Amino acid sequence: MDQPHGEYIVIKAKDQGVQVIGLTRGTDTRFHHTEKLDKGEVLLAQFTDHTSAIKIRGRATIMTRYGTVDSGD
């Protein structure tokens, strides 16, 4: 896929209570979905017509086709 639409990312929590927040597309950016991950839990997330960004709070490893990054360090 050449477009970010439909692309997946994998988020693995390094600590308890990592928050994953989906943000909407459009003229007003809003939170539309929130997940809380415990240490070791993995979430597979997808960019869609409604999700243009994903915000991660806490220590996690984020894996994409572009590489891997750690948050909260």
From TrEMBL:
The keyword Transcription applies. The keyword Lipid metabolism does not apply. Keywords: RNA-binding, Transcription, Transcription regulation. Residues 6-71 form the Tryptophan RNA-binding attenuator protein domain. GO terms for biological process: DNA-templated transcription termination; regulation of DNA-templated transcription. InterPro entries: MtrB, Trp_RNA-bd_attenuator-like_dom, Trp_RNA-bd_attenuator_dom. One of its GO terms (molecular function) is RNA binding. It holds the Pfam family TrpBP. Oligomer of 11 identical subunits arranged in doughnut-like structure. NCBIfam families: PRK13251.1. Belongs to the MtrB family. This is Transcription attenuation protein MtrB. It comes from Paenibacillus albicereus.
